[in-house]
Amino acid sequence: MEQEPGPTIIVDADACPVKREIIDTARQYDCSVLLVASYDHRMEAEPAVAVVQVDRRSQSVDLYIFNRVRTGDIVVTQDFGLASVVLAKGAIVLSNRGQRYEQSSIDFLMERRHEQARLRRQGKRSKGPRAMTAEDRRRFQQKLTKVLQNLQEFGEP
């Protein structure tokens, strides 16, 4: 896929619950969308929406996104590790709940993830993420809209 003018919204699509919100919002701003997922997830391309499916190895989606992302692209992921490396490449990164990941806070998030994994290895239980609500979807769409408006109006997020 050739680099489109303007930002591309690249989605870590394996477990992304807001794909429809991303596609609908991108259409309003004439942005292209790239959904990247393993072959385990069936997805269909649409106008201005490309789908790339990779093998199911644990980091295949992340590696594809890392190799494809360019400065100014928008990446949607809930993976702190992926967020960290694409931030370093100049991407704008949002979680599927609309949280904007920043260079200034990603180290803390990575450290917290590591601590939670350490506790799980010791047999301690931790809660998973709460179920997505309609409010979460609306909030995500508002955050994405704001980022796209700022890029369109000012050339910066």
From TrEMBL:
Name listed for the protein in its UniProt record: UPF0178 protein IDH44_04495
Superkingdom of source: Bacteria
Residue ranges, annotated region (Disordered): 117-136
Pfam families tied to this protein: DUF188 (PF02639)
Biased composition (Basic residues): 119-128
UniProt family annotation: Belongs to the UPF0178 family.
